Amino acid sequence: MKKLAVLLLLASAVMLLGGSALAVDDVGGDFSYYFVTYYANANNAKAPDATIRIINDGDTSTAETEGVPNGNLWASFYVFDDSQELQECCDCWISADGILSESVDKELLANPLTPKVNTRGVIKIIANVNGDPTDNVVEPGLHGFATHIQAFNVAGASPYTTTETPLADANLVSAEKSALESSCSFAITLGSGHGVCSCTSEDHDF
Question: Cα–Cα distance between 108 and 149 in angstroms, integer?
């Protein structure tokens, strides 16, 4: 009986410690700062537009005085076509507790580096604090969701349907970070105005 009591006591202690550890991790937040997603059926007049929404969770906010930038983050976008070629990049500002909504067709694919009409590909996003997609200073605090336009081949139904998923967390190794920043720098420098995406005003949802 004594052994049983001791085991129960130890089990209770482990549960309490586990609960405390979870609470500490909870306070620390999610430390992800690199995300990936895809787009499909873009630039199609018969299909709806896709949207990427990104939230700044306020985790980097401080007790600074009013009027001082407080917890601002940027989302660096890198938009690739289905041949793994960078078509557009840009950096969009999001204040603490703010939301950014980006149209795939009208903002992320409207000004491609090449004349190609992009219909499917990959979008990569880095959370950073310096507002420069060619030299990111990474910082966690962004969370995002993307809608996807799916072909829906069922007789009598609309040909397209929309799904939504969270942005997928990814590991940002130094080689990948450098490649994204260098490609973006080349696009900005050599694109003669092309290759740069645009940003919706914060909190202007659609």
Answer: 15
Here the CATH number for the domain that contains residue 129 is 2.60.290.11
Per the structure, the count of domains in the chain is 1
- pLDDT (mean) for 114-141: 95
Euclidean distance between CA atoms 37 and 150, whole angstroms: 14
Quote the CA–CA distance of 96 and 149 in Å, as a whole number: 30
The domain of 179 spans: 30-62+69-190
Average pLDDT, the chain: 84
Distance CA 165, CA 52 (A): 10
